[in-house]
Task: structure prediction
Amino acid sequence: MGTSETRRWLRRTGPARIEYGADYNPEQWPREVWPEDVRLMREAGVTVVSLGIFSWARLEPRPGEWDFGWLDEVMDLLHASGILVDLATATASPPPWLTARHPEILPVDRHGNTVWPGGRQHYRLTSPVFREHALRLVRAMATRYGEHPALTAWHVSNELGCHNLFDYSPDAEVAFRGWLRDRYGSLDALNHAWGTAFWSQHYSDWSEIIPPRQAAAQVNPTCELDFKRFSDGAALDHHRAEAAVLRELTPDIPVTTNFMVARSVTWLNYAAWADDVDFVANDHYVTPGPQARDELSFSANLTGNLAGGRPWFLMEHSTSAVNWQPVNLPKKPGELARDSLTHVAHGADGVCFFQWRQSRAGAEKYHSAMVPHAGRESALHRAVVDLGARLADLAPVAGSPRTPAEVAILFDWESMWAAEADSHPSSRLRYHREALDFYTALLDLGIRSDVVPAAADWSAYRLVIAPILHVVPCALADRCADFVANGGNFLTTYFSGTVDEHDHIHLGGYPGAFRDLLGIRVEEFTPLPDGDTVALDNGTTATLWTEPIDITDPATEILARYATGDHAGRPAVTRRPVGTGSAAYISTRLGPDGLTPILPALLNPVGIHSELPPELRGRVELAIRGPHHFLINRTDAEIALDAPAPLPPGGVTVLPVAPH
Ligand code: GAL
Result:
């Protein structure tokens, strides 16, 4: 995604290396601990820390009164030991004096309730008062530390929009109206886009428009979709405001902010953010479950593609347990290294954790860290030190770009938001799960794929898979058709091509925008009730959704039929050859087990084969950066490799050449 001017790595000298470190929160500890921290950091191979993320109340204890002394000392201490600082702008959580004096910065939820201080990130992204105070702090930070030799990058705020994205306050209302005026230009255009002829919703003045607050019945879906777009934009706008101050005062220091590309975070469209950072940084936490490992890889892969294939920075992950799931399991031996190295395999040139020293007090005291409660003499800290050494050995990998795969899986945030809206044929559909299932199925077949934003240029891939590509403006439909006309192979699924950018149905039968391209037509969706399944004639089992497909182009081939259920005997999976390309459709949810047998019928004819030897396929994930081949053991068993040694359960090895 990014443009070349917006791509700068950390400011530092010396040979390329994989950076290693953590969020460092020295203000949680007495000063005597700081020299010990830095000593242990050196021992562990730490090269960089993120500092000051939640320090506002300590840096500005009273309005306009600054206390930088302690931070000066920490910066100097780190610099004396050669540790770089990714310095936060410290605006992530407003101090109590600010919310006490200006309660009008507090967000308001959908029901009209104030979101009170007491946690963190309790501010309106659209509050002019918050913005003014935040930018004053950013200016003070940039002025104070812009010349500091330890400063390697700016870290804008923290996980923008993590807790406060959807705000229904009066400030949000004003900003939402302004955003809508910019988007639509006239009320007529808005009335058309929102379909306000429905349910007596016609607007006759901009002042009548409100955010989608709790209403008596389902809120207008286009209003909901626009509010998601607007809120995402409000968070990006805040990033831009802070970044503008930093770029004005310290033009030589790269600026980033930590994204949250992960299954658990769906509400920020990072495809729109990637051009605004000098280097992409991501935070990733494992979502437990059978596809946990694949999800980590999927997220790392998507992050690498948001970064345009260039190296990116893993700003946070966990050394072991987190503290915010219902049950928080520690990582098993080896998982710490495997998780970190999977990110490196997908382009991370920095591996950092939340956080350096596990807190003694506060909401995150049971969240793991690089130095756990048990202290330095612990298996976890030893694993941390070992990882530091391993990353130092991997210095030759640093800077090498991801090697593109032949298959792309498109990821489209707007389709995720719109397809999962209420009042649909099924409320059970999950966009991310469907995309991840394709990723898992390809891993099971030993095939590399790239997870690519739908907005990116994916025309060079041989096969493009677009799961639930629900929102399809005409321009996107044209891109897909051109791709196929130029010899590309396109595969999409149920509930794709259904609506345009206003969430209006493409009329004439489903899958609307893709009907002609696919050579099929569907008159009615037939979702399945919970627990119901249907069989396909290739022996696989389908759930969630089915469709009665009519073939409209005699050239369209039927790859599988429904064997049971309402549509028994009718096509379930189709493929229409178009010149040297093709357009294929899967009308139901097959899950990884059902996709694995069907995908070869789409991969083999176009010459896409596994790059792994047969005995490794499915058991090993392959990721390639330049000449470096990462082999990641997906199983709990040791895998024999010719060289350099057997791959332990969950282990990762890096070879300078393709495995054979
Ligand atoms: C992140 C956040 C960190 C810490 C971490 C815990 O969302 O940026 O400050 O809270 O989660 O997993």
Q: What stands out?
A: Residues 1-5 have pLDDT under 50 and may be disordered. The chain is about 30% helix and 15% strand. The first helix runs from residue 33 to 44. The radius of gyration is 26 Å.
